[in-house]
Design a protein that fits this description.
267 residues; alpha/beta; 12 helices; 35% helix
C-alpha cells in the first residue's frame, strides 16, 4: 500500500511539473475586452472570416481580434485559418503552394474579399484594439514564427501569440521571451476523435514545462478540464475561452475563464 501511495505521489508531482506554465517575469496581461473570433465576421455576407472587412467591423465596435496567420509559397504572411482553400474558397489548393498573387484570385465565400496580408491587417488595426495572433504551424520547415515576428516587431499595438503546436510556443520562449505567448488546447479525443499520443499530451498541457506559456486558450466546452483548472487556480495562469457562441454559453464560462473569444453573436 505504501509503495502504491509513493508511486501515486511521484506521478502527481511529475504531472504537476509537466503542466507548469511560466511563473516568473510574465508579461503584462492582455486588455480585458471581448475578442472577435477571426474578426466580426459573417460567412454569408460581405465580411467573411479573417478578412479586412471583418477586422474593420471589429475595430469599429471596439472588440479585440483573434486571427490566424500562415505563410504562402513565396514567403508572405497571410491571415487564414485553414491550410487548404476548399472550405473558404471552394478550391482544393494548399496556401503554402501558392504565391500571394495567385491567392488573390480566389474570393472568400463568393464575396469581394480575399485572403489578406498580415501586414495590411496590422495597418488597418493600427493599435486601436488588441490582437490575439494564432500561429498556424504546419511542420518543422515552417517559417511562420520568424516571419510573423518580423512584422510584429514593427507594430506598435498590443498583441499576444498562441498556437496549438508546442513548437511554435517554444520558438517564442527561446527567441522572444518578452512576448506574451499562449498554448491552445482542448479535448481532441472527444470532439474530433483524435487519439494519437500527441493529442493526449496536448489535451493535458503536458508540454508546458518546455513552452512555459503565459496563458492557456482552451475549448470552452471543456472548461472543467483538470490541467486547465490547475494552471489557472494553482499557478495563476490566465485562461482564454474559445469559441463562445452565445450569451448563455458566455455566462456558464465566466467561472472557468478570464478572457473570451466569441463568434456568431455580440456580447
Amino acid at each position: 500500500m505504501k509503495k502504491i501511495t509513493k508511486l501515486a505521489l511521484k506521478a502527481a508531482a511529475l504531472y504537476t511539473a509537466a503542466i507548469t506554465p511560466r511563473l516568473f517575469h510574465r508579461p503584462k496581461r492582455m486588455p480585458d475586452v471581448y475578442y472577435a473570433h477571426r474578426g466580426l465576421h459573417d460567412n454569408t455576407g460581405d465580411a467573411p472570416e479573417n478578412t479586412l472587412a471583418a477586422f474593420a467591423k471589429a475595430v469599429e465596435k471596439g472588440y479585440g481580434i483573434e486571427l490566424d496567420v500562415q505563410v504562402t509559397g513565396d514567403g508572405q504572411v497571410v491571415v487564414a485559418h485553414d491550410f487548404n482553400l476548399k472550405r473558404i474558397c471552394g478550391v482544393d489548393r494548399d496556401i503554402d503552394t501558392l504565391t500571394y498573387h495567385e491567392l488573390c484570385h480566389y474570393p472568400l465565400y463568393e464575396s469581394e474579399q480575399t485572403v489578406p496580408l498580415f501586414a495590411d491587417v496590422l495597418k488597418l488595426v493600427d493599435g486601436k484594439v488588441p490582437l490575439i495572433v494564432e500561429l498556424k504551424y504546419k511542420n518543422s520547415r515552417s517559417l511562420v514564427c520568424e516571419l510573423t515576428d518580423h512584422l510584429l516587431r514593427g507594430y506598435g499595438g498590443v498583441y499576444c501569440v498562441e498556437s496549438f503546436h508546442p513548437a511554435a510556443v517554444f520558438w517564442y520562449r527561446l527567441n522572444r521571451p518578452q512576448v506574451c505567448r499562449g498554448q491552445l488546447s482542448g479535448n481532441f479525443i472527444k470532439h474530433e476523435g483524435k487519439r494519437s499520443p500527441a493529442h493526449y499530451i496536448m489535451r493535458g498541457l503536458l508540454t508546458n514545462f518546455l513552452t512555459a506559456p503565459d496563458f492557456i486558450a482552451y475549448d470552452c466546452r471543456d472548461r472543467h478540464a483538470l490541467s486547465l483548472t490547475l494552471c489557472r487556480n494553482l499557478f495563476g495562469c490566465p485562461a482564454v475561452a474559445w469559441t463562445v457562441k452565445s450569451e448563455a454559453e458566455l455566462e456558464v464560462c465566466r467561472e472557468a475563464f478570464d478572457y473570451f473569444i466569441f463568434e456568431g453573436f455580440e456580447p
